[in-house]
Amino acid sequence: MSRTVYVNGEYLPEAEATVSIFDRGFLMADGVYEVTSVLGGKLLDFDGHFARLERSLRELDMACPVTKDELLAIHRELVAQNGIDEGMVYLQVTRGNPGDRDFSFPDPATTPSTLVLFTQSKPGLADNPTAKTGIKVISIEDIRWGRRDIKTVQLLYPSMGKMMAKKAGCDDAWMVEDGFVTEGTSNNAYIVKGGRIITRNLGTDILHGITRAAVLRMAQEAQMEIEERPFTVAEAQAADEAFFTSASAFVLPVVEIDGAAVGTGAPGPVAARLREIYLDESRKTAV
Ligand code: PDD
Question: For residue 9, how far is its CA from the centre of ligand 1 (angstroms)?
């Protein structure tokens, strides 16, 4: 079934929605994005995603083309028009179409940014069977650029990492820099040791996950111990549990790293509890 998508102020059938070949998102990966999950037809953590979008745009000297209220209305309209019960809304803002290829940024007064949104229907998103089995990851070197805190559309290396994982018979790759895990190809990484949740501290070397912030806040409220610091692959392999978080996967267990079983080799109780708390709380606050 054809989706209705949003491009620069218009709601269109997906086959009729177009962006210029000169768009800087296409030529330069000069753009940022957000992925917001939908459960029960409502948006999870919309405030957090909007705040991070504003930050990404600010860091790249781009203006936000719409207000928060307008963006929420566009999200809701697309969810309604496409009958999304469980799934995601993808949003992308690029530095627009200056009409030619040029390394210099165009003048925003004459080149407005491009805003595109579309939905992805994922029935069963919250009931993902992987939560009961866990995933296997490999470790790869992190050779991405140095501003991973900005959610840009430069996703070639993360895509390559996913392919390397698939080739190795695994589900994802955890990236490693200077001996320490940074994050997964499209998620934040955690281990659990002696009941303590360990995850890399925020900086420019990882994306500041919206799910990460929510899960850590909920873990703290549940009196769980948290340590924000880098960890190695060896430490992860020797941990009691490992898991990852992202807007589209929520909390999912990792049961194997580079062929070594984590803990018992089965999903652990901390990841299961955090998934449950996160889904419960998020449904309550969804908009
Ligand atoms: N990925 N780290 C990276 C590199 C990511 O791409 C993502 C999100 C995260 C988790 O952030 P959040 O909890 O805000 O989703 C961490 C999205 C889901 C994607 O690219 O599809």
Answer: 26
pLDDT, one tens digit per residue, over 129-148 is 999 999 999 999 999 999 99
* Structure-token match 């419960």, residue found: 280
Cα 72 from Cα 52, distance rounded (Å): 14
Do the Cβ atoms of 7 and 15 come closer than 8 Å? no
Domain boundaries, the chain: 4-121, 129-285
Residue type, 205: D
The answer to whether 197 touches 229, Cβ cutoff 8 Å, is: no
- d(CA 172, CA 255) in angstroms, rounded, equals 12
Three-class SS state of 141: strand
How many whole angstroms from 37 Cα to the centroid of ligand 1?
Answer: 11
Look up residue 193 and give its two tokens. 């040791």
CA dist., res. 82 & res. 145, Å (int): 36
Architecture of domain 4-121: 2-Layer Sandwich (3.30)
| Dihedral sign (CA 27, 28, 31, 34) | positive
For residue 49, give the ligand 1 atom closest to its CA: 14
pLDDT per position as a tens digit, 60-96: 999 899 999 999 999 999 999 999 999 999 999 999 9
Among 254, 185, 187, 245, residue whose Cα is nearest residue 219: 245
Closest CA to 14 of 1, 27, 24: 1
Domain 129-285: CATH superfamily is D-amino Acid Aminotransferase, subunit A, domain 2 (3.20.10.10)
